Amino acid sequence: MDMNEIKEIFFQECEEQLAELESGLLRLNDGDRDPETVNAVFRAVHSIKGGAGAFGLDDLVSFAHVFETTLDCVRSNKLEPTQDVLKVMLKSADVLADLTNVARDGGSVDQARSLQLIRELEALAKGEAPPAAEAIAPKAAAPKAAAPAPKPAPVVAAPVVNDEGFVPVAFSFDDFGGEEEAVIEHPAYDVVFKPKSELYTKGNEAALLLRDLSRLGEMSIHCNMDSLPPLDQMDPEAAYFSWTVSIRTEKGEDAVRSVFEFAEWDCELEVTATDAGEGATGETEELPMQPVPFDLSALDDEPLAPLGVVEEEEQIAAAQEAVAAAETASNVVQMAGTASRAAAGDKAAAAAAAQNNAQQASSAAAPTIRVDLDRVDRLINLVGELVINQAMLSQSVIENDSNGVSSINMGLEELQQLTREIQDSVMAIRAQPVKPVFQRMARTVREIADITGKSVRLVTEGENTEVDKTVIDKLAEPLTHMIRNAVDHGLEMPEKRIAAGKSAEGTVKLTAKHRSGRIVIELSDDGAGINREKVRQKAIDNDLIAADANLSDEEIDNLIFHAGFSTADKVSDLSGRGVGMDVVKRSIQALGGRINISSKPGHGSVFTMSLPLTLAVLDGMVVTVAGQTLVVPLTAIVETLQPDAAAIHSFGATQRLISIRNSFCPLVDVGRILNFRATQANPVEGVALLVESEGGGQRALMVDAIQGQRQVVIKSLEANYTHVPGIAAATILGDGRVALILDVDAVVSASRGQSLHLETSLAAAG
Fold first, then answer.
1. Burial (0-12, 13-18, 19+ Cβ within 10 Å), 584
2. CA nearest 564: which of 556, 575, 573, 574?
3. pLDDT-based confidence at residue 96 (cuts at 50, 70, 90)
């Protein structure tokens, strides 16, 4: 892979880490104090920072570093994750997401907002209250001071091998100034570093990490070999050594921890600040000199720095001796591994390998693979063509096999089952949980709440409900508009809520669930509900309805979906321009779904969206209407029935009702609504399909005959022809003919008196 491909993988992983970050912060905000939740949040920011550093994304690294430092204070119990603290962290997560998007797609972020959050995070890390927002104003530039003299490179003392075969070393910065006070003031830290076997498996080397640590300041180390087993019990792939390090550095604890940032999860690491000041006598406490197996400076690519007290030849000889000692130690370990395998025997080695494999299997996550979405789309299109060809082949065999018991017919039935299984499996590849979309709504809630000055809490349920990715991609826009509407119009201001006996904090609830082969998404709030008198008056003022119109509560509620309709008293950044809920309805209908409202004044509103699980295939009922073949989505059909004359009742001049189990339901002639015929057909001669409409009511659609149930491949009519009112899409039947898929909601709406605005006859179009 080239660098661009690797970078794209990094950004894909960033999306996962950002989702994990926000999810963890929301759990903390809900009172979860599980240490693993805190660790997961910290790891998410830490991973983003590490990857961004590899690609030189400095802005992202800088912000993530400050964020990570504050999270580390929470992780070490130095900072209590209160609501105020988590509010800052949730905003920081939003900025981190913005910086990631800018790094990937270009553009810019609000620098003032980023700077303010950096200051707030730094204040929290220090145990201080965050500064006020106005603190982001730039300060006057201070006069430039003389540039300090550059610090010399660290000087490493030449090693000398002692009688035990170890090389005692100490690392110090020579300040060339003779001012010991500068050394005294440097903070000191104790570092306990114990690698796991995974550290070496991933190509890391403890000695190199210790070398990098030594470059930070004056250091002494001790190697603990107490865990080293006897030679015949040694596992060559295990990690037995650990190191205790005392280091004095002016660069701080973050610099110490950053040395181990790419190995932190593969080792046990403890960094503890110790007293670095003067003792009771005012003298500097000496760091103890401890033996280590080899000189860390021998691992440097650069030559040893010259020393005034050691000749160059002695330095070279000492370095060579140290390298030889390191090689000898490495050879001893390799020999020990060979000896241990030979002593333990093949049986013991096999048992150890089996145990190791079992441990790896138990700890390994489910394997996954990243596939470009275009490849999946091509596969789905091919499966769709396979379904069509299978249907055509079945139709041909049926037409030429009158008794229907031939071996070819039986084989086709098996092919049909196999095709259905293949199709379901391919569609499952595209199925994804709605969790990413729901998490994006959490940010929208926070931003709208800040703008409106309201206190809002978002509750989500059913985040793991799966739906086709094409549906998920188109859910964000309508959900965003609905969230804005719920927070801006639905929820009251805190003082009004308290006066009404409610909590000052409003609640917006977003749920997803499967129902009857569709996904149902509900957005509810505990606000004031829809003010129907205000909505009705606005509709009259805008000439949407007549002043004497007799509308039900459901019809009044649905007026908010009209284009240009708004109940806002004034235009603001959020509302008042009449753009929003009409977009929601169009977007949902474009997905083949429907939306309805239920509202209770003083208690809130519920918006319910019913959407297909996929936009690629459809289970439908193939029917005949006035010589035309239509497909009615099976999920909309409640039942089918054959009307009799006694069940049909006239209502008004043109309306008819059908009696179903002691209740009356409007009867809708589909052929008349779609202009397939000029007069209404006799319902006794047809079949009635009882369907659920958009508003939750039922209608009986009258068709001439039912051909059967089919699974059809959806073809966009708009992309291949043009938009046809009353028709949702098209498909290709087994005999090669094109059939139109009925838009049930549009037909039901037309039966209520709303025109389909047909300019041409569908009979001519189809």
1. buried
2. 575
3. very high
